[in-house]
Structures are given as C-alpha cells and as structure tokens.
Specification:
136 residues; 6 strands; alpha/beta; 8 helices; Rossmann fold; six-stranded mixed sheet; 50% helix
Length: 136
Amino acid sequence: MRIVIDSNVFVSALLSPQGKPAVIIQRWHEQVFDLLVSPAILSEYRKVLQYKHIKRYLSEKEIDEILKDLSIFAVEIKPKIKINLIKDDPEDNKFLEYAVGGKARFIVSGDNHLLAIKEYGQILIVTPATFLSKTQ
C-alpha cells in the first residue's frame, strides 16, 4: 500500500510523538506501507518546518536529517499529471497529483480542502484517525 501524507500531518507527527500522525510515521518505519514523496513535497515539508512557531522545536540540523531520511527511505515519484481541482488552495492539488502519479491508496491530511473531496478515483482522502482505523 502506498500513501501520501500532507504537510500538516507530517509536522504534527514530529511535534506530538504520542499523536495519531506519529503512529502513522511509526507504521511507515515498520514498513507497513510505502510513503510517497517528491522534491515538491519535501520542499513543502521544509517550508512548513521553517515556520517560526514550529522551528523553535527543531534545529536546522534536525530538519535536514529528517528530510534526508525521507528522501532516502520514502518512495520518490515524479508525477506527469496536472490536477486543478482545488480552487480555494491550488497548492493542495500537488498532493492529488502525487497520489495519482504514485498509485497511492490514501492521502492522509488534516486540510479541509483535501478532506472535502473525500475520494479521488480510487484514492481515499482521510484524517490520520480514519487512516489508522481503516488499516489496522
């Protein structure tokens, strides 16, 4: 099974090691599923980790190491499809593009723009709690 994790879920996993997003990352470490990334997703993760209110919890070196591990151990994809479904926040379309391009089964997100779609083709767009309940 392949999944795409939205940046808000990824950052939540780092900041709250006891929460559901952290459980998802732990399950990825246990090789329960493949995590799909791309240079654009890694760039967005870095951008969000650089926010002042988040960066106070992680050093630049820790951020570099986390993203390096992702680039090594996650499955990197380069989608060839453009999707323009989310008009209110067009940046969110990239998560759909990567999920389609990487043949993901799930997009795990806390973003209301993505969650409102619920399903795109065979891809389910779910919260961390729903993902964990559907995959246990």
